[in-house]
Write a structure and sequence with these properties.
four-stranded mixed beta sheet; alpha+beta
Length: 425
């Protein structure tokens, strides 16, 4: 079992390139089996989650070939199976994304309940709602069996803005007969990527980027070559790392539009950056002081469906806030267990009051000291890395598999930024 050993107290400095959006790569890989022709995907991050999704594609009988560091060819001319292997489904929540493509292409799909991060209850009811509206029947008996003799377009109103349920509905609807309207749809950049990719394959999707999608079903999709967009979650994490360590960083290959919700929340902590074209620069000299709301009220950083602040970055913001002068409320509305990692930060010296499973009041700046930590999920794990790098002394972080599911070659990239981090077996 590997762990990270980090000597904190050293500001980072340097330049990195943004990786591909993990949350776009996963559904785009699943969407590749909607056609029997060759699909070439570029800017796929080299992480555990994409490796698992590619392994699932291969297990279904598709040909999968790596053509360069971040580019893959997938050709699903003949699918020899429609059941997701249990050992792969356990590893990743995104395994549920194969339900839509498999029932659209083959009329059936089978899997056990998906695995993934332990951050509280993660409903799959919205997936069932959308797919049954399109004509699928779902049997649940320890396993999920999806059967659809014929998919028909439908007017669907999702009961929540679920990203993966929206993607599943889209991938099923593109080959359904007639028009589908998906209201209350998720509109995150990764959902937009899936829609854009499918349109290059011959799908007819309009309303991309909004909460109402209109999909005119087609009989067949063809192959495509598509490049995944940059990962704004990773970018936001590295911004937080630079700020917490009082360092500087230049990040190349960003999409400026993706950064707008992040800028608003980081500005509340007195943290700013400059953008020139597709390059973002965080200076070493920052105000690092909470900007209070009108009337001197305590500001709130709360997550919401896009274009709100992304929930995956609330863990990062919690750590950054410990190094900022002032008090802020972190309100994580989406998952009831995501904030439970703050007890580790408190042990490190942070001044945090956990009000309930969703709200934490953070007062800073706090002097953090090294500690032994365990990564509970991808984003909290990265938050612990940031805390360890901002702390005095040595920290050890175990269960780093969880971190590496979402951050490509993290140790190597942190080394290049001047971090004192090593991997210990």
């Amino acid at each position: 079992m590997r762990e990270y050993r980090i000597e904190g107290g050293f500001p980072i400095s340097g330049t990195i390139r943004a990786g591909g959006n993990k949350n776009a790569a996963l559904p785009c890989i699943a969407a590749s089996i909607l056609t029997g022709e060759k699909v070439t995907l570029h800017n796929i991050p080299d992480i555990e989650d994409t490796a698992v999704m590619l392994a699932i594609v291969e297990s279904l009988g598709a040909r999968v070939q790596k053509i360069s560091n971040h580019s893959w060819e997938i050709e699903a001319a003949q699918l020899t199976g429609t059941a997701i292997p249990d050992e792969l489904s356990k590893k990743i929540r995104a395994s549920i994304l194969f339900a839509g493509p498999l029932i659209a292409r083959c009329g059936t799909a089978e899997m056990i309940p998906p695995g993934g991060d332990v951050i509280g209850r993660r409903r799959i009811d919205t997936h069932f709602l959308a797919l049954t509206e399109l004509g699928a029947r779902i049997d649940v008996n320890g396993r999920f069996t999806f059967i659809a003799h014929k998919l028909m377009g439908a007017d669907i109103f999702l009961d929540e803005m679920s990203v993966t349920a929206t993607e599943n509905a889209i991938m099923a609807a593109v080959l359904a007969e007639g028009q589908t309207v998906i209201s209350n749809a998720a509109s995150e950049p990764h959902v937009q990527d899936v829609c854009t990719m499918l349109n290059t394959m011959g799908a007819k999707i309009s309303g991309i980027g909004s909460n109402v999608l209109r999909i005119d079903g087609v009989k067949k999709l063809h192959g495509t070559e598509f490049s995944i967009g940059p990962d704004y979650m990773e970018i936001g994490s590295f911004i937080g790392l630079a700020a917490a360590t009082k360092g500087s960083i230049t990040i190349e290959g960003i999409n400026p539009r993706d950064m707008r919700p992040l800028r608003i929340s980081y500005n509340k902590l007195g943290i700013r950056w400059d953008i020139t074209g597709t390059t973002l620069s965080v200076p070493a000299v920052q105000e690092m002081k909470v900007n209070r709301d009108f009337g001197s009220a305590t500001p709130k950083i709360d997550d919401a469906p896009w274009p709100g602040f992304p929930p995956d970055l609330t863990s990062i913001m919690t750590v950054v806030a410990t190094q900022v002068d002032g008090t802020v409320l972190i309100f994580e509305k989406m998952f009831e267990s995501r904030m439970f990692f703050v007890d580790k930060l408190i042990n490190m010296g942070a001044c945090i009051t956990l009000c309930d499973p969703h709200r934490a009041v953070v007062s800073g700046p706090s002097v953090l000291h090294g500690d032994n930590l365990v990564s509970p999920d991808v984003r909290a794990g990265m938050a612990m890395v940031i805390a360890a790098m901002a702390a005095h002394g040595e920290s050890r972080i175990s269960n780093v598999y969880q971190i590496e599911r979402g951050y490509e070659h993290l140790v190597e990239r942190l080394h290049n930024l001047g971090a004192h981090i090593t991997i210990v077996n």
